[in-house]
Amino acid sequence: MSAPRDDEFGFAPDYDSPIPYMQRTRDYYSAIGYTTPYRWAHYTAAPFQKLKKPLAQSRVTIITTAAPYDPGKGDQGPGAAYNGSAKFYQVYDGDTSKQHDLRISHIGYDRKHTTATDNGTWFPLPQLLKAQAAGRIGEVAPRFFGAPTNRSHRVTLDTDAPEILARCLADAVDVAVLVPNCPVCHQTTALVARHLEANGIATVIMGCAKDIIEHAAVPRFLFSDFPLGNSAGKPHDIASQAQTLELALALLETASGPQTTMQSPLRWSEDASWKLDYNNVAQLSPEELARRRAEFDKQKEIARGNRAA
Asked: What confidence tier does 37 reach under pLDDT thresholds 50, 70, 90?
């Protein structure tokens, strides 16, 4: 259809739709020389746990794929290149009564369009504490939990998800809000949410990779059409972060069954051309692809050493 007709009808450009992260990822890794396509987790049905009590009486935790800042692990600051040294491989937890410096340098978020200067965009604890103070939720659980971003489905399903469940049960958690960042993070949180839901804990995922989450079939998903790394709202925009959490809480209350997706009405910007950039081989030169392959191999070796340690 011609552009004049698009203007006449008020159509958006075709690229202004959710980014196809699974296909982008397959094409990208094929282009840098990895010929075995990654098998994304795929289910056609999901478990579903209704709220056992009103949110105003519920204990709520956060499950994040962000990592605690460790000054001994290289550059993890805003704008840092992918840093395999900062990855973590076991579930961790943190005291929700304290402030935490969690960062995302260890994962593949959108480094072109995400500044990574405000961890409120990937760790909504401040907003959750405000929800507690306002009586919107009963209380914030005493601990939040870190989920390792593991490409191994088996490790996530057999080790990490059960460990997170055990810690949630120990804290008498009623509800979990899961916040992924990178493509594989979205798969990780989907598998964890399914496990929690099957074992009596209601969940909602706040994320930006719609295709990955829906491919894995989760109970509830709040989709923000933002660059990866901003699942909890826009950076340095408290109203956006508050609205995003409120939408997630409302979805917990209103979803009538599994595989319910709600799309946030918020837009990243009026110009949607940012969606054309992330791991898009059509935008990358052979020289850039070769550089990225070399860097990827280097980071794999670093991560392999950290895992062994």
From this structure: confident
